[in-house]
């Protein structure tokens, strides 16, 4: 299986433009044979906490029609996509979520970030469950940015039988996670790790991109560099038990 991290510069608050960018990257990743393309944290709006807090119309529903162009791209290319967004919850605050759209264009999974960082606690509601989904018989773990600083998240993923660890993040150019977190998680738990990062201006500063895939030994398999838009595409080791079927929605 090939997997991809897609990076682009989000337009703050412009869901239509950002979905269009993701749609194009899904098609490009599919052209390189990727079964999944993941995007960064809050890719649909950009990482701007004040903007998101002040405009509830930027909070997405799981079936939000503004994601339809992306669903169509997934369906017509038989490719799954992991979309970072602010998502509606049952309460007064949104969650920082990863919505996984399956290769049929339907919702495959939703993960809500469990470890909120700093001012995120004033805007969002934290999730309570680990992120999991299955695609083509391969079990994926999902984590968002600050989640990845906690080793037990990856430990549970390995113990739970996950074959691949996907991280959707927003990391600035000074963040040490590129060296001290993602390849370490891969090596320590013998799991391929995919990082989808932001590129360009964001609420945490300038982000360098550097979306990447590391192998289960921690070796770098692919990087998107600092360009935008760009893809990091890599083939991961075949997982035991692959059956060619995607699971139903997991939350």
Automatic annotation (TrEMBL):
Q: Which Pfam families match?
A: CN_hydrolase
InterPro entries named in the record: Aliph_Amidase/BUP, C-N_Hydrolase, C-N_Hydrolase_sf
A single GO BP:
putrescine biosynthetic process from arginine
> Keyword Iron on this protein?
no
| Keywords of the record | Acyltransferase, Lipoprotein, Transferase
Top-level lineage group: Bacteria
Matching entries from Gene3D superfamilies are given as:
Carbon-nitrogen hydrolase
Example of a GO MF term:
N-carbamoylputrescine amidase activity
PANTHER family, per database record: BETA-UREIDOPROPIONASE, NITRILASE C965.09-RELATED
- Can you name this protein? Nitrilase/cyanide hydratase and apolipoprotein N-acyltransferase
Give the source species. Answer: Streptomyces pristinaespiralis
């Amino acid at each position: 299986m090939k997997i991809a991290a897609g990076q682009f510069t989000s337009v703050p608050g412009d869901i239509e433009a950002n979905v269009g960018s993701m749609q194009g990257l899904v098609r490009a990743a599919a052209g390189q044979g990727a079964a999944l393309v993941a995007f960064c944290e809050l890719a649909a709006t950009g990482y701007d906490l004040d903007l998101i807090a002040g405009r509830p119309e930027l909070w997405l529903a799981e079936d939000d029609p503004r994601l339809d162009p992306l669903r169509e791209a997934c369906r017509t290319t038989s490719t799954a996509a992991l979309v970072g967004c602010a998502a509606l919850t049952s309460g007064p605050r949104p969650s920082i979520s990863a919505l996984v759209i399956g290769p049929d264009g339907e919702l495959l999974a939703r993960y809500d970030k469990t470890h909120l960082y700093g001012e995120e606690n004033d805007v969002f509601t934290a999730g309570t469950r680990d992120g999991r989904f299955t695609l083509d018989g391969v079990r994926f773990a999902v984590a968002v940015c600050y989640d990845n600083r906690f080793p037990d998240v990856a430990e549970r993923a390995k113990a739970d039988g996950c074959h691949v660890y996907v991280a959707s993040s927003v990391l600035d150019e000074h963040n040490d996670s590129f060296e001290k977190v993602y390849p370490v998680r891969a090596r320590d738990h013998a799991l391929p790790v995919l990082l989808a990062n932001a590129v360009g201006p964001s609420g945490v500063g300038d982000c360098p991109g550097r979306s990447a895939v590391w192998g289960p030994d921690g070796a770098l398999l692919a990087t998107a560099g600092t360009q935008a838009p760009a893809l990091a595409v890599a083939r991961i080791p075949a997982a035991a038990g692959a059956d060619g079927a995607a699971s139903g929605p997991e939350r």
